[in-house]
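Here we describe the complex-level prediction in full. Unlike the single-chain runs in Section 2.1, the two entities below were treated as one system.
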Amino acid sequence: ETGVTQTPRHLVMGMTNKKSLKCEQHLGHNAMYWYKQSAKKPLELMFVYSLEERVENNSVPSRFSPECPNSSHLFLHLHTLQPEDSALYLCASSRGTFAYEQYFGPGTRLTVT
Amino acid sequence: KQEVTQIPAALSVPEGENLVLNCSFTDSAIYNLQWFRQDPGKGLTSLLLIQSSQREQTSGRLNASLDKSSGRSTLYIAASQPGDSATYLCAALSGGGADGLTFGKGTHLIIQP
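The structure predicted for the assembly as a whole is:
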């Protein structure tokens, strides 16, 4: 595997389910990000991790819970989501959080029913 | 708060034409500006990264310029091809980097064969 990978690629879940999105980067980077892309809205930053510590939480509801166990892996735990949370969730990584190029994964298409 | 605007929202041109995509940002205190390509239902592919100290970057048929003082960037595509059809996104990195990228809504480009 190379670059940034995300699993699953597609996910359908009910509002009472609990699921997790996984991101893995094979680039030796130290920073990882979660972004949300909703229809007709710009990509929005959700969380930033640098060296496994969360440095940014962009006012995201608590039903989204990130976890970064090491610099190569990033998870987004989901519980009691709403239909408006249906979106494409993109993970990215970079060498650091300051002025470095970000590399994106293919995304997870989430549908909440 | 940084805001990024892309004009036009959509563009359709015949194959072979040279074209310019525009991006503007409200806070000139950026660290870098990145142009991405997104194919339908897919993640983002990084095209060009311009650091704040640079004026332009080139990669093949693509040339991106940056004018921080006026808050503008342009992506120039030479000799367009049907394979260039995609949504093009620009994103600005500001706020010390920990804020992540701020994206525009993108320009949906169609190159007619």
